[in-house]
Design a protein that fits this description.
177 residues; 5-stranded mixed β-barrel; alpha+beta; single chain
């Protein structure tokens, strides 16, 4: 069943999305890169955030299909193992999107744990992935992302010593694991 979930998801999304909805969301977020990405095969759909796992993983409900989202481009402190700022990152992402009908932008890829890799746009039109980095509660996950807008947000948060950057020696999640 685990292997069928990505295929089922892709079929549902492909037949239920429309381009006008995609254009409306892209216009609302003001992201010119989102326009290019959608043209490059991105999938866009709306779903309700039903759970927060940690600072970079949320559960959504798309129609009747529950899915776990791994936030694209970012890596947040680990809640498991009690990494510094892990609980705070979970609270911050919860405040940004829990219970909301959000827009999911994805290329349809799943990670090895079966999580859909995606960007999440909240009801206010805010890119939650970017906001986590901007507020200092996530790193730009350069191993899996070459989107340098995330790098610029991380550098600004570091400079301002906000979020986890208040720590004199923050440990990246990939080193903590």
């Amino acid at each position: 069943m685990q292997g069928l979930l990505p295929l089922l998801f892709f079929v549902l999304i492909t037949f239920s999305c429309n381009q006008s909805e995609a254009s409306a969301v892209v216009g609302k977020t003001g992201s010119q890169t989102a326009n290019a990405d959608l043209a490059g095969g991105k999938i866009l759909f709306k779903a309700k955030v039903t759970g927060i796992i940690d600072g970079d993983t949320v559960d959504i409900l798309y129609h009747e299909l529950p899915l776990r989202i791994r936030m694209e481009h970012i890596d947040a402190p680990e809640k498991r193992g009690k990494q510094a700022f892990g609980n705070k990152a979970k609270i911050v992402i919860s405040n940004l999107c829990f219970g909301q009908i959000v827009t999911i932008i994805t290329n349809g890829e799943f990670d090895m744990g079966g999580r859909l890799i995606a960007e999440v746009i909240n009801e206010k039109g805010m890119n939650v992935n970017k906001e986590m980095v901007k507020l200092g509660y996530a790193w730009h996950f350069k191993k899996y992302s070459n989107d340098m807008s995330y790098d610029a947000l991380e550098m600004e948060a570091r400079k301002l010593n906000i979020g986890l950057w208040q720590d004199k020696n923050p440990v990246a999640p990939w080193d903590f694991r």
